[in-house]
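Late entry, citrulline complex.
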Amino acid sequence: MSNRALVRPPSARLEQGLVTHQQRQPVDVARAREQWQDYCHALDAAGWDTVEVAAADQLPDAVFVEDTVVMFGETAVLTKPGANERVAEVHGTEKALRQLGYRPVDLPGGRLDGGDVLKVGRRCYVGVGGRTDPAGVAALRTVVAPLGYLVTAVPTRKVLHLKSAVTALPDESVIGHPPLVDDPGFFPLFRAVPEEAGAHVVDLGGGRVLMSAAAPRSAELIAGLGFEVISTDIGEFEKLEGCVTCLSVRLRD
Ligand SMILES: NC(=O)NCCC[C@H](N)C(=O)O
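Prediction complete; structure with ligand written out below:
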């Protein structure tokens, strides 16, 4: 049994990616490509076979592949990204999923970015206030409620996406950097972390989590909870409001 992860190579125009909450900074595309390779190697080393969505140089933000699809077991829900500049990214993801044997479904209305969808067991929190609108939440609900998911909208105004503010550890506790979380009261088990980038974990399975190298104090805190932390430098992507979660879509068997 193998786990696969979709990834998409950085565009040659990466430096033109969108920024919303941060000040624009120059992006070193060559360095970003190295960081992306390291990120893919970290996934590979943890037992995830990376599958590349075809590169798209004309789409600066395409590397942030998580925003284009949300997986619910075998069900892949293609999104309608909230930024018009990013809508065309979905086609490449759809094609890659079809080649892997999935039959993806379209979000039946509204706007929604994958980065706004946090699944914790059968709970599905969806950030609203930035890229995702209430119609997008309602549309997602019509697709996934029959699969047994409870969809809850969560106000998200301080950062780009819900998962820029909070993600979940393998024990289903939700971690966030309090100044950036609109309302921690939405999450039954909330743990504060001391750094913005410390709020972002990719669950690699087996008690291992992938984190940004920009959050050493949060990594220490999480290691102290008994998880194995693997850190990787994604600094060039963080300049564009990207996080470790958004650079891949995990296809769990
Ligand atoms: N899920 C994510 O955190 N995606 C990051 C997207 C960053 C990109 N520059 C954007 O603004 O859409």
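The two ends are 7 Å apart (CA to CA). Will revisit in the morning.
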